[in-house]
Each structure stands twice: as C-alpha cells, then as structure tokens.
Amino acid sequence: MTDTQISAPGAGIGRSGRVALAMRGMHHRLGPVLAVVAALIALWYLAAIPMNAQNSLMLAEREGIVLTPATASERRNMSGFALTLAEPSQAVARAFAQDRPRLPSPHQVLAELWDSTVNQNVTSKRSLVRHAGITLAPTLLGFVIGSLAGIALAVGIVHSRLMDLSVMPWAIASQTIPILAIAPMIIVVLNSIGVQGVLPKAIISAYLSFFPVTVGMVKGLRAPSPSDLDLMRTWNASATRTLLSLRLPTSLPYLFTSLKIAVAAALVGAIVGEFPTGAVSGLGARLLAGSYYGQTVQIWSALFGAAIVAAALVAAIGLAQRVTLKRMGLS
Amino acid sequence: MPDDVINAAGLDLTFPSPDGPVHALSDISLDINEGEFVSFIGPSGCGKTTFLRCVAALETPTGGTLTVNGMTPDEARKARAYGYVFQAAGLYPWRTIGRNISLPLEIMGYSKSDRTKRTQDVLELVELDKFANKYPWQLSGGMQQRASIARALAFDAKVLLMDEPFGALDEIVRDRLNEELLALWKRTNKTTLFVTHSIPEAVYLSTKIVVMSPRPGRITDIIDSPLPHDRPLDIRDTPEFLAIAHRVREGLREGMEVA
C-alpha cells in the first residue's frame, strides 16, 4: 500500500506519542511556573476578601441582613481586615462576584477578557482585540524607530570617543525623566507642528525603546575578541568593513536580548501615549476609561490584555533569536 | 642588505603601567633574510609576541628602527605584506571555511573569480579542500588552525607571522601540524616568524632560533641551525638536533639567571 517501512523513524511513536515526548521535555520547565501561577492566584483570591469587605458588607446590609457594626458610618473607618474578622461569612461569600469590586477576582477578569475578545466583533468598540490592535500600531512603529536609533547611537559611541563621552550620560539622563511627565509635552509639541495620529505615540515608544538597544549594542559591538579585531587590522580593513563583517554579526546575541526589553518598553510607551491625548480607543484609553467610571474589571482585563500582547511580542523576538543564532552558529 | 625582509636595529619598547614603565623590548637587533624560518622562544614576558606585533604594526616601538620589506611596519601593513596567525584560529562561526578564507580577499578587493581560485588553492595546500563548505565548529581544533594558516596564505603576503599557532593543541596534533607546516614552508618558501614556548618545536622547524629573556625583554642568543632542509620527524633523536636543543636550553637558563 505505501512504501513506509515499519522501522521508519518515529513510526512506532505516533502523533500523540510525539506530543507526549515533547510535553515530557516541557514538564520540567512548566512545573515550577505553574506552581508559582497557582500560588499567585490563591493569594489574589485571598486578598480580594479584605479588599472588597467594605462593599460586601454594604451589599449585605442592603439585603436586610443585620451586621455587627450595623451602619455604614460605623464601618467607614474600619480596615478591610477588621471587617473581615467582624463578619467573616458575609465578607467571604460576597467578595468574588461584585459589579464594581475594589479588587476583581481572577475569574471575573478572565470572564471579561473572554467576553471582550471572543464574544465581540473585532470592529466593536468593546472589543479588546480592536483596542490592542490600535495600540499595537504605534508600538511596532516606535519599536522600529527606537531600535534603529539605538543601533545608530551604539555604532557612533563605539567608533567615536567623543560620542562615547558625550552621548551616554544624556542617554542615561533621558531615562531618568518619568515618561508620564514627558509624554504630554511630546504630544503637545508635535501637535503644534501638525503631527498627529500614530506618530506622536510611536515617538514616545521610541523614546523608551532606544535605550536598552543602545546599551546592549554598545556591549555587543565591543564583544569581538582583541585578536579578532587585530586580525582585521592586519588586513588593513576599514572601520566600516570591520563593523559589517565582524562587529555586527558578533553583536547579534546582545541585539536580540535588548530587542526583547525594547519591545516591551515600546508597548508601555504606546499605552502611556494614549493618556494625554484623551484617546477613546487603545489599551491605554481602555485603562483610563475604566478608572474614570470605576470599572475595575475593565481595567484589569485591559492590563491583562497588555500583558498578553507584550508576552506575544517578546516571544516572537525570542523565536527570531533562536532561529537566527542557530543559523549563524552563535548559539 | 637587499635581501633583508625584516631589519631591526636597537629596537626599544616601553609600556607605561601603574607600577612604572615596563621595558618590553630592549635593544633588539635582528636581520631576517628572505625565505628564512625564524623561531622566537623564551619565557612569558620576554617580548617575543611583542616583537611580532611590532613587525605587524600592532604595536609601535618607542626607540630604534624597524623595517619590513624595506618599509615601515605600518606601510607594510597597509601594503598587506604579511599574514598573521594567532593562537585562536579566529574563524567566524557564521561563515563556512571557504568563506572565512576568502574574507581577507573580499576586504582587499580581489575579484570573485580570483577569490574562488585562491581559496581553492590554499585549501588544497593545507589539505582541507573537501571542507570548504563546512562550518568551523564541524572541524577539529587542528583543522581549524590549518584553515587559519590557509587564510593567512590566501593573499600573496611576503611574510608569515605566527604567534603560538599550535599552543592550544595537544602534542600529537601538534607534531603532525609541525610536519605539515615545514612541508608548506618548503613549498611556498615564505619568510616565517614563529613564536613558541616549545624547544623541540623551535629546533625542528627553524633555520634560525632567537632565544629571548624577560625583564627587560631582550635577545640572549641567536642560533643558525645546521640541520638540513629535509627533516623527518625522527631527526629529533639525532645528536645534532639534541645539541641545538641543549644550546637553546642553556640560553634560556642564562637569561633567567641574569634576570
């Protein structure tokens, strides 16, 4: 029927067998991670009880249940812990299903995440996928601008002693300024010269993402061994040639590591960039709107949306890193 | 003299250091003729590598004169008058052996067809022609060093500078590479400067042995080898060979006593 031999590689294992083998390999790495996640979720649920106690007891009172500190004004100055101890059954029972909890519980966030992604049309204003996409555009543009600027600065710093001494302190200083303080200024200044839309947000992203690339690439471009550099000198190779043939390829492991940090920083920049513009769409706008209207579940789901996007971006670069370095013989 | 490839007279080199100046080379005078194989031997800090680096214009002497092919070392470097082999093979892991060898040719602007031909020729010379498309990590340490020598031979440099090229290899591989290097030298007749720690290696390979001592780095003895050009490996058991080795050892000991 077929030419496949019985003893063909992997023939006896089958698909599920191969998956099991792969899973067994991952098991060692996955176990500790899952344990930490489980502990965090348990802690989260536990924290939700005192955090939401004030609200829990108010809801109980409205239903006519008699409580020990009977009125809201008596309870106002009590801590969440004290309330939980005073009325443990009510505090626990009502902590995890409130409309506007101070701390939403994990399953509420998850439900909101599910509802705002899978259950919504992508074009809907309630779709988190749409908001993520809107934030992704300036993130990626800013990441590209920032990375290129970071590489260019590093090349300058490695080749010019003057730049090494003059640029690096400014690059470090630029990162000590809170981004929340400088973001509105960037938006206002660019707006006054007619630049609007994606670009101002991308520039804030670039502002955050160039720095790790500069630092990583300065180290990477200086990574070739002295004898490798001497060899280039014995061939009377130009600085450009040495850069292209030796320094850049050698710097690639450093580049990928700093790109991972840069892309996450770019996302933060794009989110922060949405705050001062009064944007109505995007993950940042979602966070802001959530906090205006006390929609904590919406805030948390937007936060998790951002975390998922960041994780996906970092993973994509990690994949590119593994493939490239393996092909270059650098891993 | 017209056939002097390298001519050093009263060469001095002092490095500044926090503990005061270090006298790396002191009054080095040496003439090397075309086609000679000269070994530099001595303990660490005797300046043998420093002298090689001066010839390559990787260091600048602070006194005396040094010419390479009748030019200053830096002019010689720019004229690509020498090929340099380091202890580390220094092959790029992202380039195949063939493309590693053609890298200096690319830098020097050789045409593509010329590059291909020269790479092929030197690969045959070091018997690596079947490995042109392999990557460095697919080769043993000895083969990598042979590739590195091939790379130094690929452009027609007059002089081959070798800084402990076999220092990181085991003795069995080293013996074989010594034999091959000698055969290569006889075929190409290239003036070779060879830095080593090993007395047998120096005596086996050289037409001239320069014995050096540290603090300050100086020449204590220059031995013109009476050994014939044809040297099978077992020449190392002959009385002539042992006599030269003895003289080298004496020179090294003398240098240590004075220091």
From TrEMBL, chain A:
Alphabetized Gene3D superfamilies for the sequence: MetI-like (1.10.3720.10)
Membrane topology reported for the UniProt record: Multi-pass membrane protein
Gene Ontology biological-process annotations: transmembrane transport
SUPFAM superfamilies, sorted: MetI-like
Domain ABC transmembrane type-1 stretches: 128-321
Transmembrane helix listed as a keyword: yes
Tree of life domain: Bacteria
Chain ranges passing through the membrane: 30-49, 136-158, 170-190, 251-272, 299-320
Subcellular location: Cell membrane
Keywords for the protein's UniProt record, in alphabetical order: Cell membrane, Membrane, Transmembrane, Transmembrane helix, Transport
One of the record's GO cellular component terms: plasma membrane
Family to which the UniProt record says this protein belongs: Belongs to the binding-protein-dependent transport system permease family.
PANTHER family, alphabetized: ABC TRANSPORTER PERMEASE PROTEIN (PTHR30151:SF41), ALKANE SULFONATE ABC TRANSPORTER-RELATED, MEMBRANE SUBUNIT (PTHR30151)
Protein name, as recorded: NitT/TauT family transport system permease protein
Species in which this protein is naturally found: Jannaschia helgolandensis
Phylogenetic lineage: Bacteria, Pseudomonadati, Pseudomonadota, Alphaproteobacteria, Rhodobacterales
From TrEMBL, chain B:
Stored InterPro entries: AAA+_ATPase, ABC_transporter-like_ATP-bd, ABC_transporter-like_CS, ABC_transporter_ATP-bind, P-loop_NTPase
UniProt keyword list: ATP-binding, Nucleotide-binding, Transport
GO MF term set: ATP binding; ATP hydrolysis activity
A Pfam family of this chain: ABC_tran
Domain ABC transporter residue range list: 8-235
Gene3D superfamilies for the chain: P-loop containing nucleotide triphosphate hydrolases
PANTHER family with a match to the protein in the record: ALIPHATIC SULFONATES IMPORT ATP-BINDING PROTEIN SSUB, TAURINE IMPORT ATP-BINDING PROTEIN-RELATED
Similarity comment: family membership: Belongs to the ABC transporter superfamily.
Protein name in the entry: NitT/TauT family transport system ATP-binding protein
Organism: Jannaschia helgolandensis
